[in-house]
Structure formats: structure tokens, C-alpha cells
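Pasting as-is:
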Amino acid sequence: MDGTNGAGAPGPSGRLEGGPFGVELRIERRIEASIELVWANLVEPARLERWIGTWEGDPGSGSVRFAMTAEGADAPWADTRIHACEAPHLLDLETAVGDDSWRLRVELLGADGVTLLRFAQAAAHDLGVDLASVGPGWEYYLDRLVAAATGGDPASIVFEPDYLPGMGRYYGELR
């Protein structure tokens, strides 16, 4: 993980920057695992479910259905469009979230058994993205991904109070 708040909990690391989606929330993780293993944790349903959720459907069709099962067994399914899937380096998705849609991108760079993960979400305020809750949420899920990819237990990472409200103010003040 990228830092702590002094109590052993992760510290916020996201930032807003311009990118292909306009204003983007960007968060990075350095993962002590091969790029192939990190990629597998992003795209294989059984591995994905350990840290965030699962998907069903035919990715070759350009769309799947995704459920954030880490939110509970009754998590709703969301239609998810695949804009790019270039193993093991790029995953670019758009997923329905209520009446909105979220554009998400994960880029991976690997060398010597270490992977740099770069996450981005379109974050312009007119897109309905509440950074005070979305930012801590992605920090939480990316830390769960790190745990899954490195042999740890994603369930040992607790959302409240470390991520929210712990990181809410930081993300709420990002501009």
C-alpha cells in the first residue's frame, strides 16, 4: 500500500488530472506480483470475485454484466461495455451505476515481478461522481486487489472507518 495515516490504515493517494476522459480521478498501486497475475485478478471471474465482484457474458461481444459482490450477495448486475481489453496492459470499461455511467481505465506496467497499476475514472462533477465517497471506495477496492494478487486476504481490509469516513474529506476537497 502507498502510505498510512499513522494508525496502520492506508492514506489517500488519489489525484485529479486531465486525461483521455477529461478530468480523471487517478490512483496508482505498486504490486509485488507479476503483470500476468495482476491481469488475471482483473479479468478472471473467480479471481475478480475475491476482491470486488464478478461478471458474466461473452467479453468478445464487447459487453458483459458485472456485479459488485463485495457489496453483498444481492448486489445488482450492471451492464458493462468493454471499450478496450489488451492483455495484460489495458482494460477500459464503461459501467452503469444507477442512472449514470462510469468510465474506468486500468493500465498495467510490469517488470521484474512488480506491477504498476494505474487506475482512472472520469471524474468531472457534471458526471455525478461524488469524490468524497468514490475516492475512498476505489482506494479500498485497489487495496483489496493488492491483497488478492499478493496472496493476502482481501476480507481483512475493512472499509469503515479507515476508508470512509477516514479519506472522505481528502477526496471531497480535491479540485
